[in-house]
Amino acid sequence: MRFCSACGSARVAWVIPEGDHRERWVCPDCGTIHYSNPKIVCGVVPLWGDRVLLARRGIEPRLGKWTLPAGFMENGESVEEGALRELWEETRARVTLGPLVAVISVPHIHQVHMMFLGELIEPRWETTPESTEIALFAPREIPWDQLAFRTVRLTLEHVLRQPEPLRAPQLVSAIR
Amino acid sequence: MRFCSACGSARVAWVIPEGDHRERWVCPDCGTIHYSNPKIVCGVVPLWGDRVLLARRGIEPRLGKWTLPAGFMENGESVEEGALRELWEETRARVTLGPLVAVISVPHIHQVHMMFLGELIEPRWETTPESTEIALFAPREIPWDQLAFRTVRLTLEHVLRQPEPLRAPQLVSAIR
Questions:
Q1: Per the CB < 8 Å rule, is A155 touching B171?
Q2: CATH pick for A1-36 out of 3.40.640.10, 3.40.50.720, 3.50.80.10, 2.20.70.10
Q3: Beta carbons of B90 and B58 less than 8 angstroms apart
Q4: CATH class in words for B39-161
């Protein structure tokens, strides 16, 4: 941040505001404190029987690598809505959403990844500019050495390790 | 946003960037797209036997109402670290962190609340500027009509409704 987005001042400084305990961008001219917080990446593990749907990335980063459909949660939606939207945008697939199976913090890039299980309603999908190839993989076929992100690997390892159908005792809800 | 935080331009506009599908603050002078995304509020349901620790808010909003210890997750920490930090800042209590029990989206204020169970290590706490009174409540003693937020009510209702000790099949992890 080089300029205050509230008043345009060029004097914004990285300091600890009074009564706070960590540094923020603070404008000495209008007093605005500009907070920055982690972002949520939400997505789906789309299942068809014992196979999982993966997409080959058509955009950077990790162009050409395989991933689970996921992306940044937007203002005005719930985590579940964001997960379904990202699935649709990247694969044009539809699922019945299941439990939240993975919550993975990635502190150094200020992200928290939240992945839901989903049962494909039908085995249909379409490539998009974001996904140049989409396919179902049996557990033994997963391209472990061509996965796009460590969060994808962790999530897939976790899902495949579950001995029984997954249950979710936690509350996943939305207040409007 | 009235000024571009990258170049100081006063011409930032709320428009749909090329290749996007929703409005963002975009600077026509330097081209920067300023994204805004939901924030995570993380906290703990601190348990001592069958009683839960609540804190009476010493600050706005909802000054004087009872709440579970929680607050905004910060950059550079995991969700679990954020939950423990907020517990400490608001009550000076320490817990052994348990499973994630509630993930509650609040789309209209762009928040996702994530609450963990926690077993108090010892029945010790201290009031702070943020919490003017702290106490253990048996389920029948909870001040339902004096709770600070609907997320607190939902979380407490959910925790008290669990018939057995909670298990968490989901992955809660951090990548560094």
A1: yes
A2: 2.20.70.10
A3: no
A4: alpha beta
